[in-house]
Recover the amino acids of this structure.
């Protein structure tokens, strides 16, 4: 639950969002429960809406809303975000392998879409917010599809026949009838939706990725400025000489862009540097003077290598924590000693140190997880609290140099790097090996369908 002081701070938001002139508002100071008299959409008489601010692990504060009408017995409930729209959107992907995965909590905002990836991708489009679990969303999709099958059979028989195997597969999932595994994903441009993680998740079972919203998505959320005004202001910024095709090492270039946080014009600074014994990399830094948004990213160039690269580093002292490390956006980072697994795309591209990358992992998780652990969030099991506390304790020891551990960078594009302190001699603490990419990695990277030869003939055939 949320502290009473938190409820006091958000009382104005409650009133501005729900209270209208003449509404009857009651509040329980002990629980923070608020009751608002509001109009029933069914019988158009007054009913009661109950509002409760809660804190859900790993995500922002939320408002639970429950409506009931004593006149017609109509009832409804939903969940609304009590926080602001995040600076970046988020997408969660989960491989459902057992009944425990079906019980994972799901928070859906009004702008999120939930997709079940089975024979065909079945998407539950955005609607009112929900606090449910994976099984609950699948049940909702199943009921929505099967409820109108009789009508489709008469009016759209082809659609009816196409949906029969899909509905049957969803029914098997709900009945636990040999339906595992399958994949679900939750995409929310506001960044306020969530599928619960588990401390035992490994590999590609659970992924969380952040992305920058497009201008069209900002318009849908109502946070975009006038496109013409943004273009006019951006055109006044210095984008450099377009005829200068040679990028000079060490020189900073400034490019106009649209801020992913507030959608106003901002600057992206680009600098090319050479990492000894590795390759050239491009460092991108975004700064918005309007909302203060800051972000950085690292991109590497060159051809696609034939094999991926796996780099293993034994960290024994504080000296090893200061080693430079380049983690590309396609690289996974793992450590068995720290019980740490960071999947590709989670942190994006980073050029920092070993200590820096661990600190970024801690900062990203700590704001969501530890606040809930310390405040005793109702929806977090006690076993999970103990596991998270142990995880952060070991992470703190590693950052301070009090714990020896092994860290592994696995990059299918071979674009990651760890500083060698013994060059040109062999560093005994670093092991580098090439490995063959899996078919799934090839597909995720878009290499399966990539064609670099003979595409001119294909284009000519399309034009005929």
């Amino acid at each position: 639950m949320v502290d009473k002081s938190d409820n006091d701070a958000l009382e104005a938001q409650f009133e501005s969002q729900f209270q209208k002139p003449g509404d009857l508002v009651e509040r329980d100071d002990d629980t923070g429960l608020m009751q608002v008299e509001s109009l029933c959409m069914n019988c158009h008489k007054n009913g009661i809406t109950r509002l409760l601010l809660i804190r859900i692990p790993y995500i922002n504060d939320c408002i639970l809303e429950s409506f009931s009408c004593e006149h017609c017995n109509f009832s409804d409930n939903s969940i609304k975000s009590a926080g602001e729209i995040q600076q970046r959107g988020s997408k969660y992907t989960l491989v459902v392998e057992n009944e425990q995965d079906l019980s994972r909590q799901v928070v859906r905002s009004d702008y999120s879409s939930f997709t079940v990836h089975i024979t065909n991708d079945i998407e539950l489009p955005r609607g009112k917010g929900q606090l449910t679990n994976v099984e609950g969303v699948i049940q909702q999709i199943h009921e929505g599809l099967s409820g109108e099958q009789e009508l489709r059979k008469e009016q759209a028989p082809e659609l009816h026949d196409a949906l029969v195997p899909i509905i049957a597969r969803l029914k098997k999932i709900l009945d636990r009838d040999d339906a595992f595994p399958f994949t679900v994903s939750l995409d929310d441009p506001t960044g306020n939706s969530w599928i619960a993680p588990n401390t035992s998740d490994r590999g590609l079972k659970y992924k969380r990725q952040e992305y920058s919203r497009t201008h069209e998505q900002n318009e849908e959320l109502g946070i975009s400025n006038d496109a013409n005004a943004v273009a006019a202001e951006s055109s006044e910024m210095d984008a450099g000489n377009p005829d200068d095709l040679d990028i000079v090492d060490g020189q900073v270039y400034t490019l106009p862009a649209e801020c992913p946080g507030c959608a106003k014009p901002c600057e992206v600074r680009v600098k090319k540097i050479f990492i000894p014994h590795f390759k050239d990399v491009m460092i991108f830094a975004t700064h918005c003077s309007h909302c203060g948004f800051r972000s950085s990213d690292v991109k590497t160039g060159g051809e696609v290598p034939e094999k991926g690269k796996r780099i293993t580093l034994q960290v024994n002292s504080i000296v090893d924590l200061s080693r430079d490390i380049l983690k590309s956006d396609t690289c996974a980072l793992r450590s068995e000693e720290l019980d740490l697994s960071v999947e590709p795309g989670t942190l994006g591209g980073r050029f920092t140190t070993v200590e820096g990358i661990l600190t970024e992992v801690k900062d990203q998780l700590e704001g969501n997880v530890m606040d809930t652990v310390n405040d005793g969030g109702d929806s977090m099991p006690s076993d999970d609290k103990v596991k998270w506390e142990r995880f952060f304790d070991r992470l703190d020891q590693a950052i301070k140099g009090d714990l020896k551990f092994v860290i592994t960078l696995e990059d299918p594009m071979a674009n990651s790097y760890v500083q060698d302190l013994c060059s040109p001699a062999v560093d005994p603490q670093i092991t580098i090996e090439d490995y063959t990419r899996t078919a799934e990695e090839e597909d995720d990277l878009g290499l399966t369908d990539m064609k670099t030869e003979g595409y001119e003939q294909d284009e000519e055939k399309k034009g005929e």
Summary: The chain has four domains: 4-81, 89-211, 231-300, 308-444. Residues 354-375 form the longest helix (22 residues). Residues 231-300 form a domain with the N-terminal domain of TfIIb fold (CATH 2.20.25.420). The two ends are 65 Å apart (CA to CA).
